[in-house]
Each structure stands twice: as structure tokens, then as C-alpha cells.
Model the fold of this input.
Amino acid sequence: MEGPHSARFPSSPVGETSRRATVIRGAADERARRRATATGRCDVRVGTPPMPDAPAPDFHHAPVMLAEVLAALGSATEGWVVDATVGGAGHAVALLDAHPGLSLLGLDQDPSALAAAGERLARFGPRARTVRARFDALAEVVAAELDGAAVVGVLLDLGVSSPQLDRADRGFSYRLEAPLDMRMDPEGPMTAADVVNGYAEADLAHVLAIHGDERFAARIARAIVSARPLRTTTELAAVVRDAIPAATRRRGGHPATRTFQALRIEVNRELEVLPVALDAAVEVLRPGGRLAVLSYHSGEDRIVKRALRWHETGGCTCPPGLPCACGAVPALRLLRRGGLTPTPAEVTANPRAGSARLRVAERLPRPAPEEAP
Ligand SMILES: C[S@@+](CC[C@H](N)C(=O)[O-])C[C@H]1O[C@@H](n2cnc3c(N)ncnc32)[C@H](O)[C@@H]1O
Done:
């Protein structure tokens, strides 16, 4: 299934480590490489990162909306589920425990998450596999790993895991002193320091406004540029705090929250690779299979909602209310219009679930070749 989202990937049966070569290369990489060349912002590297040898350190992540995800993906009791963001395998383990007929292919770009997932999934033997890959390589990973087996579910639980946020050395948190890193894939080509110290002021302001909904983006970008070079998370957090009007500083959460979110999204190109993964998920699902996506901020959710709606109509361009004459082929049925949100009890127990939104859709049958437009 070589295509526009071409990628190479490592494959490891769970419980083992693999030294097979990794090349993560996709359409999004190519766009980023071109952009990087044009702006001189960053150098996109296509490499062969080693798989981790050490067992996973403590990796605690509470799976969000677990009951709702299980209900969404539990409609099929046999076949493969692709967990494209396997993380600490919280959802994955619960799915395999609940449905002995299901098997699971877990993807993650973070080797420490993958090591933790591998350890937790080892007891399922051949029912579970893990692959280090970015999820825009989903179609190719599935083609190579599952060899035409039925994919009955795809889960995307977007964003970062708790250990990524809580481990100081990853540089995701404004509270913990660390180098400005924020890469989910530690072999990734660009760090937060590259963005903070290398982007033009206008580009930086754009990133903060678009990925962080930061209304003081221009002020913060100006302050960052005059404080360069910034090396650590806490240095950056102090610059952001001082750039924000005092009255605003006293309201709401930490003033650096939105800046850190925006930088993380930029560094990991989160919104760029998401549409590729969503299209691939629709493509690999067998009819009746379910796609479940958990998003955590408005930018992500907007992309998910648009992609699901597009596949619901097949991109139909006919006037609303008239029968479709443009030949569009709907691929999805949405299980409900809006997204589901976590219960208040879950948010009390796990505040990080607070912004979660779950959208679920079901794959429609593909038209027989003679029916195809
Ligand atoms: C919210 S956590 C998933 C937690 C998991 N559902 C669980 O129950 O433990 C998101 C995970 O997705 C991974 N991730 C984020 N974006 C990714 C991408 N583009 N490709 C592959 N993995 C990604 C992160 O490294 C992280 O481990």
C-alpha cells in the first residue's frame, strides 16, 4: 500500500526489542522538509533510531473515557484493533481483556511509551504487536503487519501521555526545569528550543495564536525574541508570564499553558499528520468497523470533526436536500453528531481528562466494483 503517505517502520512483537531499521517518512515529512528548506527553520531528518533496550520505567497514564472507548470499539468481538497511540496501553489492555477474540496492533512514536506498552501487552502473546511509527504511516504499517486481516477498530487517543508531561527531562512542562525539548519522538528533527530561538517573530506569534489560541501571541513572541537565547522550560515560562498583562496573569491557570501547548503541537507537527492518519484509518477499516478519536483541544477536534464529516458524505458537492449526483461515496456513518465528553466523576478523578472529546464513526460497506462511480 505504498502511497502518498509512504513510510517505513520498525516492527516488534511485544515483549521483545527490535533493532530493525526505522525510517519514518511520510507526506507530512515531505511538506515539512520543503517548508524547512524555504524558511531555514529546521532540518527534517530521516533516520534509523534505535529501539530501546531498557525495560520501561514507571509509566502511569490513566486511560481517558475508558468505558466509552470500550463501548465504541466493542461492537466487534473478533479481528484486529489498531491502537495508533498505544501509549501506556491502558485502552489496549482493557480492550484485549474485555474481548478474547480481538487482537491489537499498537503504534507509538515514543520508544519509552512503546517499551511500557510492550511490557503490559506481553501477557497477550500473539494477540498483541507493537510498532514504533508515527501514525501517519498507519496504512503502510497495517498493510505490512496484518497482511489483509480484518481491521475492526482504530483508536486515536491524541496528544501526550502523563509520563511525557511529568518526566522533567522531556521538557513538556512549564513547572519542571528542563531543556526546551518537547519531542514525542526523541529522534525527531526539531526541538522546542529550535522553535523558540529560531523562528522569526511573526512565525512564532502565528504558532502561538493558531496552536494555542493565545490572544497575547504577538506580545509573547516579541518578549521571547528579545530574551533569546532561551534554554530551559522555566526560563521560557517566566518570559511568557512577564509578557502578559498583570490583570490577566491573576486569572485562570498558569499563563504559560497555552504557549507550551502551541510549541508542543508545532514541534511534533501534531495537526499536520492527523488528517493523514484519519484518512488512513477510514481506508483500513473493514465495513462495520469503528473509528474512535479522543481529542484534547479545539484545533485537534476541529480537524477530527471535519474529516469525519467529509467521509460521511464522501466529499459530496451536491446542493443539500437533492439526491447526490456527483458520484461521492460515503465511507462513514457518525454514531452521534457531537462529541462525547467525560463524566464529572472522571474529571474529578483525572483532571487531565477535562478537555477530552470522543468522536466515533462506523465504516460503511464499499460499493461493489460495478456500483463504483
Ligand atoms: C494520550 S497518550 C495515549 C495513552 C493510551 N491510550 C493509554 O491508554 O495509555 C498519546 C500517545 O500517543 C503518542 N503519539 C502522539 N502523536 C503520535 C503520532 N503522531 N504518532 C504516533 N504516536 C503518537 C504519544 O507518544 C503518546 O504515547
About this structure: The first strand starts at residue 12 and ends at 13. The radius of gyration is 21 Å.
